[in-house]
Please model this.
Amino acid sequence: MAIAVRAPAEKRSLLVRVPRLRTVGLLFLVIWPWVLPAQPWSSMAVAAAIQSLALVSLVVLTGWVGQISLAQAAIMGVGAFSAAQITMHLGIDFPFHVPIAGLASAGTAVLIGLPALRIKGLYLAIATLAFQWMLEESLLQMHWFSGGFNGVTIPTPKIATYSLSNERLFYYFAWGIAALLMLLVANMRDSKTGRAWFAIRGSEIAARSMGINVTRYKLLAFAVSGFVIGVAGSLKLNTVGSATPLQYLFPFSITFLALAVLGGIGSLAGAVAIASIFIFLQDYGFPQIVPSLAQKGALPILAAALLIVQLITNPGGLAATKEKMKEDIAKRHLRKKMRQARKNPGPAASQAAALHESATTITLADPEAAARLAERVAARGERAHRLDSPALLRAEDVTIRFGGVVANDKVSLEVRRGEITGLIGPNGAGKTTHFNTLNGLLVPDEGRIHFAGKDITDMPTHERAAMGMSRTFQIMRLFPRLTVFENIMVGTHLQNTAGVTSNVFMLPRSRNEDARLSERCREILALLGIDHLADERVAGMPFGILRLVELARALVASPQLLLLDEPASGLDVSETDAFSEHLMRIRDEMGPTILLIEHDMRLVMNVSDYVYVLEFGKNLAEGVPSEIQQNPDVIAAYLGGEGVTVG
Amino acid sequence: MKFYIQNIILGLPIGVIWALLATSVVMIYRASRVLNLAVGGISMISAYMLFQMANDERWGIPLPIAVVLTILFAAAIGWIIERILLRPLRDRPTLVSVIMTIGILSLTTEVASMVWTVDRQPAPNLLPTGAIRFWGIALGVDQILTFFITMAIVGVVIYLFRATTLGVAMRAVSDDRRAALLMGVPVDRVSSLTWIIGSVLGAIAGILVAPQVGLTPLGMVFQSIPALAAALFGGLVSIELAFGGAMVLGVLWSVLPGVELGAWRLHDHVIGVQQIAIFALVVVFLVVRWQQLFGSAAKEEEI
Model:
């Protein structure tokens, strides 16, 4: 279930590639209501549009941003009753009350989104459950708004003098609105906004470190999701002509979630498919086949049972089934080709063999890396002093306490512009804690941090990123379901000047920025020698490559300062050499200042201009690599004895 | 003043039922890292089972036996959920198992609506009815008994957790499943057993509360929402804090609607004041206490 951050051209759907097919398809959608009887077919199609929108709201919120909501039904109700109220009291009727209903629901959704800024996962499930409960109770009792148990009734919608009680006409409006909204959310998905959402879904910490304002994008997601389901609510009001709170009770929230998961949460097409199937079964299939069961509500039972079965057997839902079918076809195709190649060897066969090879032997190890690294180290020469350049980053007496544990005790360090600075120390010395403080994930209990001439002690992480601070993580935080290229595109967030509006409508600004930045991503990939892997999924790639991908993602932000947390852990000697060489080359060619935590002494001593040593949360020593290697305290700290050289 | 005292006392039997459900949620979360949103469903369907067995003349099962059978039924449900539905999901993201429990909740609610309709059914009363007057305050005998029975059960569960081998094993599993496995703790059995006990607790809460709130599918499920909120107050891991939270919520539930500020009655002006109060408490608690509860930002990510 990859939600593509769409790669250019080749991923287009069949409908776009074959314009004639698209025309025929559209014509069919326009004509069929006149071929089949309006009852039940057109009414069902309208209901399917409404159901689709309800599920799309969860596709956005849960599928793309990873936020669960069990309050969708109540939020939809707010939209429906708002539309009814403004129709009755202000005389604003269909279609003009539709966006207003959307906004009312969006506001309600943001209300539940506010706690979600701090709460997530399990806790959000409970909070939204309580929200649904509260809202449905309020709706039932707010007679002036919802009409209580009896609900509210509005006159038949009209456009000019045409009554829309005609299901055939309303079909065009409902699907037109649904298609428009889906197009707009798809636009968001395929642009900077969507990448920020996927980043939040994958790891909020990584997202913040890439300069994504998590608060803003989460609230945006709640608002978009609320708007979509509010519109669905107002459409439902118009088809039935009335609304009661009983249509928006808790079980509907659950059914929405169950269906969205069945459709393969994250896929718009899956949502439309499952919504249509559900409506067909509910309004036609079930009543026709098993009328006695249908009356008793067997369909929700079926949906729940299917959800349970699916979670165990096919977690990706309908969308995953389709993906798998595609993959099977591709595999069969490849096998056929291989068979042919075996029969008549030639250029095709060697091509296939080469393909196979490149797929199996992706590695960072490079026999010549060691020699190139030695050259670079020699070219730099032995330094007796650190660079004489101004400080880019300065930590002064930073203290961090976790309960009674002092993880950092008055730690100070200075990173000078253009340097590669190493931060070493035994396990548990407080290195990563210090990194998290520099990066803004932790706020120090005491001490100050200065960056690029500014006191940033209280600045949130994403603003530090905007000032030019990028980082990688000890336990990598890549997004496994995205390709290498897509992962790196997420890192361009700060470079992208397109705004949300431009993303929603896919204005030229948005498209041009994406084109410009994807060019830049490819350059960085080429610089690190992994451009041939750009379109491969990250999941399952070897560690060495993943480390480079994470480095590339930090680099595309054109940082002033690059914080690398154990970038070589998990790499073998040869891979480490290759990585060291990349680091020195990056600094020389692209110019970021680098601060790295590392346990691999060979790497640290090779690339660093200056080294700080921490032990038990305190500064132990500092100096150029040769000094550190001779320092008896450092040696004691690492080995608990004397007389051994570090390095 | 008397009004408040009376309502505080009346709130205790409400709170104690939620405490029982919250205990079930916390236990299960601790031993299997699954947030069981289906607890209300299990408790509801058990109450219906008892109703079916005791009230249907064709079945004609004496009440005490029906209670025992209901408890066994709940135990079986707990075992089935853990063994068949959740164990295959153990290595998947936590959200997947939550969605699974939502599916179970949906299934139980819909099945109950289909079999017993959404209309209120007369739930059998296990406890003697009648009222005791005490200092001018009328208390139902069933409420008093509910309170003490539930207190005793929660006490036993806390003892189980604190002082028995099973309790130690449960805590070990909740701290680090893999380490517990390596130390020879029968992780799967502990997990199964927790689900069985948790479901039985839910069933007891269900059959005790059904005569008081009325036996409808949603009405019973909604009893679990304050219980989940209470479990949250215990950070999903502390039975004691969850218990305290549930009692506070129960008292609030009972007192709030009648609060008067001069001539201004809260209930007349704030619609759904009880639900709003619980939701607000959940949000305020989560937002304000988040840092203290869950430590650093890095830790936050794991949840």
Observations:
- The two ends of chain A are 46 Å apart (CA to CA).
- Chain A has a mean pLDDT of 85.
- Residues 389-639 of chain A form a domain with the Rossmann fold fold (CATH 3.40.50.300).
- The CA atoms of residues 48 and 278 of chain A lie 8 Å apart.
